[in-house]
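sry for the spam today, last one i promise. C-alpha coordinates for design, 155 residues
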Protein backbone atom coordinates (compact mmCIF):
# COMPACT_ATOMS: atom_id res chain seq x y z
CA UNK A 1 0.00 0.00 0.00
CA UNK A 2 1.28 3.43 -0.88
CA UNK A 3 1.34 5.91 1.99
CA UNK A 4 0.44 9.41 0.89
CA UNK A 5 1.47 12.55 2.72
CA UNK A 6 -0.36 15.81 3.46
CA UNK A 7 -2.81 14.22 5.88
CA UNK A 8 -4.26 11.66 3.46
CA UNK A 9 -5.39 8.39 4.93
CA UNK A 10 -3.64 5.04 4.56
CA UNK A 11 -6.71 2.87 5.05
CA UNK A 12 -8.06 0.14 2.84
CA UNK A 13 -11.76 -0.73 2.59
CA UNK A 14 -11.63 -2.54 5.93
CA UNK A 15 -10.41 0.71 7.50
CA UNK A 16 -7.18 -0.80 8.78
CA UNK A 17 -3.62 -0.12 7.79
CA UNK A 18 -2.91 -3.06 5.47
CA UNK A 19 -0.09 -3.86 5.61
CA UNK A 20 1.16 -2.06 8.68
CA UNK A 21 2.84 1.17 7.63
CA UNK A 22 6.48 1.58 8.60
CA UNK A 23 6.50 4.83 10.55
CA UNK A 24 9.38 7.25 10.19
CA UNK A 25 9.64 8.41 13.81
CA UNK A 26 12.13 11.15 12.91
CA UNK A 27 9.11 13.08 11.58
CA UNK A 28 7.73 13.19 15.13
CA UNK A 29 10.72 14.36 17.21
CA UNK A 30 8.73 14.93 20.41
CA UNK A 31 7.46 11.35 20.58
CA UNK A 32 8.81 7.81 20.73
CA UNK A 33 7.25 4.66 19.36
CA UNK A 34 7.19 3.11 22.85
CA UNK A 35 4.75 5.79 24.02
CA UNK A 36 2.12 4.59 21.57
CA UNK A 37 2.61 0.80 21.85
CA UNK A 38 -0.27 -1.39 22.97
CA UNK A 39 0.21 -2.44 26.60
CA UNK A 40 -1.10 -5.94 25.78
CA UNK A 41 0.83 -6.75 22.58
CA UNK A 42 3.66 -4.21 22.41
CA UNK A 43 2.59 -3.39 18.83
CA UNK A 44 2.35 0.13 17.48
CA UNK A 45 -0.02 0.51 14.54
CA UNK A 46 -0.58 4.24 14.68
CA UNK A 47 -1.98 6.13 11.70
CA UNK A 48 0.68 8.57 10.43
CA UNK A 49 -1.98 11.26 9.96
CA UNK A 50 -2.70 11.13 13.69
CA UNK A 51 1.01 11.36 14.52
CA UNK A 52 1.32 14.39 12.24
CA UNK A 53 -1.59 16.06 14.03
CA UNK A 54 -0.27 15.39 17.53
CA UNK A 55 3.22 16.58 16.53
CA UNK A 56 1.72 19.87 15.29
CA UNK A 57 -0.19 20.19 18.57
CA UNK A 58 2.97 19.52 20.57
CA UNK A 59 4.94 22.13 18.60
CA UNK A 60 2.29 24.77 19.32
CA UNK A 61 1.75 23.70 22.95
CA UNK A 62 5.50 23.96 23.69
CA UNK A 63 5.28 21.58 26.64
CA UNK A 64 5.83 17.80 26.86
CA UNK A 65 2.78 15.58 26.27
CA UNK A 66 2.72 12.32 28.24
CA UNK A 67 0.87 9.63 26.27
CA UNK A 68 -0.97 7.20 28.54
CA UNK A 69 -2.64 5.21 25.77
CA UNK A 70 -2.07 5.08 22.02
CA UNK A 71 -2.62 1.99 19.88
CA UNK A 72 -4.78 -0.74 21.45
CA UNK A 73 -5.09 -4.19 19.92
CA UNK A 74 -8.79 -4.95 19.40
CA UNK A 75 -8.47 -8.59 20.49
CA UNK A 76 -5.96 -8.45 23.32
CA UNK A 77 -6.12 -5.04 24.99
CA UNK A 78 -8.27 -5.31 28.17
CA UNK A 79 -10.38 -2.24 27.29
CA UNK A 80 -10.82 -2.89 23.57
CA UNK A 81 -11.48 -6.64 23.83
CA UNK A 82 -14.67 -6.03 25.82
CA UNK A 83 -16.19 -3.62 23.29
CA UNK A 84 -18.76 -4.82 20.75
CA UNK A 85 -16.85 -2.88 18.04
CA UNK A 86 -13.22 -1.77 18.16
CA UNK A 87 -12.71 1.82 19.28
CA UNK A 88 -10.62 4.53 17.65
CA UNK A 89 -7.48 3.51 19.58
CA UNK A 90 -7.50 0.13 17.83
CA UNK A 91 -7.32 1.90 14.48
CA UNK A 92 -4.33 4.02 15.52
CA UNK A 93 -6.46 7.15 15.33
CA UNK A 94 -6.29 8.27 18.97
CA UNK A 95 -4.22 8.86 22.07
CA UNK A 96 -4.88 9.79 25.67
CA UNK A 97 -2.65 12.49 27.15
CA UNK A 98 -2.08 12.62 30.91
CA UNK A 99 -2.49 16.14 32.29
CA UNK A 100 -4.75 18.07 34.62
CA UNK A 101 -5.75 21.47 35.92
CA UNK A 102 -4.32 24.45 34.02
CA UNK A 103 -2.34 22.31 31.59
CA UNK A 104 -5.49 20.41 30.63
CA UNK A 105 -7.30 23.70 30.11
CA UNK A 106 -4.48 25.05 27.94
CA UNK A 107 -4.21 21.84 25.88
CA UNK A 108 -7.96 21.75 25.33
CA UNK A 109 -7.94 25.35 24.09
CA UNK A 110 -4.99 24.65 21.80
CA UNK A 111 -6.54 21.47 20.37
CA UNK A 112 -9.81 23.26 19.67
CA UNK A 113 -8.11 26.25 18.06
CA UNK A 114 -5.92 24.12 15.75
CA UNK A 115 -8.94 22.11 14.51
CA UNK A 116 -6.79 19.03 13.82
CA UNK A 117 -8.80 16.63 15.95
CA UNK A 118 -12.37 15.49 15.40
CA UNK A 119 -12.91 13.83 18.78
CA UNK A 120 -11.97 15.25 22.17
CA UNK A 121 -12.74 13.40 25.38
CA UNK A 122 -12.18 15.01 28.76
CA UNK A 123 -11.50 13.02 31.94
CA UNK A 124 -10.69 15.47 34.71
CA UNK A 125 -12.26 13.78 37.75
CA UNK A 126 -10.39 11.88 40.43
CA UNK A 127 -6.70 11.85 41.23
CA UNK A 128 -4.73 14.36 39.10
CA UNK A 129 -2.32 11.60 38.02
CA UNK A 130 -5.19 9.74 36.34
CA UNK A 131 -6.74 12.67 34.50
CA UNK A 132 -6.39 12.87 30.73
CA UNK A 133 -7.51 14.40 27.46
CA UNK A 134 -8.41 12.00 24.64
CA UNK A 135 -7.71 13.21 21.11
CA UNK A 136 -8.65 11.46 17.88
CA UNK A 137 -9.04 12.04 14.16
CA UNK A 138 -11.96 9.67 13.52
CA UNK A 139 -14.33 10.45 10.65
CA UNK A 140 -16.92 8.41 8.74
CA UNK A 141 -14.25 7.97 6.05
CA UNK A 142 -11.54 6.44 8.25
CA UNK A 143 -13.49 4.86 11.11
CA UNK A 144 -17.22 4.08 11.00
CA UNK A 145 -20.03 5.48 8.89
CA UNK A 146 -22.12 6.19 11.99
CA UNK A 147 -19.46 8.19 13.85
CA UNK A 148 -20.52 11.76 14.63
CA UNK A 149 -17.66 14.19 14.23
CA UNK A 150 -16.53 16.68 15.28
CA UNK A 151 -17.57 16.09 18.87
CA UNK A 152 -16.50 16.61 22.50
CA UNK A 153 -17.48 14.43 25.47
CA UNK A 154 -16.64 13.84 29.11
CA UNK A 155 -15.96 10.58 30.93
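last one done:
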Amino acid sequence: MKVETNFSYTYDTKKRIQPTVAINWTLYPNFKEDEFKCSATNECKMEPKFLEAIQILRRHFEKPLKISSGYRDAKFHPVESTKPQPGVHSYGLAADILLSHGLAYDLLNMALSLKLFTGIGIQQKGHPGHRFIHLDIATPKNYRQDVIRPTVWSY
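The chain has one domain: 25-154. ok im logging off now
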